[in-house]
């Protein structure tokens, strides 16, 4: 019986999360109330508060789901880390970057509702704004770590390089769909990989060779 009750609790909690995410996608975070979420889940606000002290706490749980989908794991140094991203940045090669971007882009349809809801929530809730900014900083720190392991670039430039590549990735993940910006998936990944390689790879960072001057 205890096991059944725990299973029912997990199901109710997940139903609340799924119902909230559907509403955030349809109405936006700011326009969705606790009562809306409870009604969509077929329960009451009393039940909602038994699982989540507030709508903000539910959003925190959705960000936790986002980390799972993106294979971000606990890290004592920076709360969460994506080990594969660190390894790819350490490698720095166009092939490794392209392969990783193809893999992560296959999850965008799944994570986009979480990402959009998180950024909408951050716009209206200062506590969640801090949480989302910290989450982005964790991804930037992964890039810094990869560059540090590789010994590439001056240490004081690594953070900015991380900011730039993660900003690109976040914007594309939240906004790109097939055909948007007149780019299919292959074209989009190719350009994104080109940009990342330019920011993260020693070879791409070197100035282009000058053509010989044939003038007399």
From TrEMBL:
SUPFAM superfamilies: Homeodomain-like (SSF46689)
InterPro entries listed in its UniProt record: Homeodomain-like_sf (IPR009057), HTH-type_TetR-like_transc_reg (IPR050109), HTH_TetR (IPR001647)
Residues of the HTH tetR-type domain: 10-70
Database matches in PROSITE patterns: HTH_TETR_2
Claim: Membrane is one of the keywords in the record: no
Cross-referenced PANTHER family: HTH-TYPE TRANSCRIPTIONAL REGULATOR BETI (PTHR30055:SF234), HTH-TYPE TRANSCRIPTIONAL REGULATOR RUTR (PTHR30055)
Protein name: TetR/AcrR family transcriptional regulator
Species of provenance: Streptomyces prasinus
């Amino acid at each position: 019986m205890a096991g059944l009750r725990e299973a029912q609790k997990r199901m109710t909690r997940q139903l609340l999360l799924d119902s909230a995410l559907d509403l955030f996608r349809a109405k936006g975070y700011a326009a969705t109330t606790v009562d809306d979420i409870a009604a969509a889940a077929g329960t009451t606000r009393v039940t909602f508060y038994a699982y989540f002290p507030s709508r903000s706490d539910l959003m925190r749980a959705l960000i936790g789901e986002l980390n799972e989908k993106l294979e971000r794991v606990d890290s004592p140094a920076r709360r969460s880390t994506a080990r594969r991203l660190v390894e790819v940045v350490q490698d720095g090669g166009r092939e490794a970057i392209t392969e990783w971007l193809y893999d992560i882009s296959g999850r965008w349809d799944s994570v986009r509702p979480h990402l959009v809801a998180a950024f909408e929530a951050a716009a209206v809730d200062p506590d969640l704004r801090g949480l989302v900014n910290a989450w982005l900083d964790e991804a930037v720190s992964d890039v810094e770590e990869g560059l540090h392991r590789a010994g590439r670039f001056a240490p004081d430039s690594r953070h900015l390089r991380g900011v730039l590549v993660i900003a690109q990735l976040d914007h594309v993940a939240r906004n790109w769909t097939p055909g948007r910006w007149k780019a299919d998936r292959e074209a989009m990944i190719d350009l994104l990989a080109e940009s990342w390689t330019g920011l993260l790879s020693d070879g791409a960072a070197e100035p282009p060779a000058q053509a010989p001057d044939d003038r007399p």
